[in-house]
Amino acid sequence: MGNQYDALVPRTAAWQLRGRHARGARTDSMHVFSQELLGACLFVDVTGFTSLSSRLSAEDLEQVINVYFTKMIACIDALGGDVVKVSSP
Q1: What confidence tens digit (pLDDT) does each residue in 7-36 have?
Q2: What percent of the chain has a predicted confidence (pLDDT) above 90?
Q3: pLDDT in the model for residue 1
């Protein structure tokens, strides 16, 4: 399971979650401790993105995607969630 988890969640994300949610945890060390955390990974496929990218300039496409992610992150924040990383393939 460790290798599958490592492939989906970068080590820095795990350390950030541990540092943010574990009281008194040191994020600058490799000290290992056991704690159960609730987390989720969200994978999003934007329908019509390829078509959109062929019609818009890079700057316009960036603006559209930034608006989308700004709204998505605001919803996650409003529900008490944390966005640790946003990336594309």
Answers
A1: 666 666 666 655 554 555 555 555 566 777
A2: 29
A3: 44
DSSP state of 9: S
3-state per-residue secondary structure call for 33-66 = CCCCCCCCCCCCCCCCHHHHHHHCCHHHHHHHHH
Torsion angle in degrees (nearest 10) through CA of 52, 85, 73, 60:
-30
Nearest to 46 by CA among 7, 9, 89: 89
pTM for the model stands at 0.52
Domain edges within the chain? 1-37, 42-89
- Other CB atoms closer than 10 Å to residue 17's CB: what's the count? 19
CA distances from 87 to 24, 52, 53 (A): 29, 19, 17
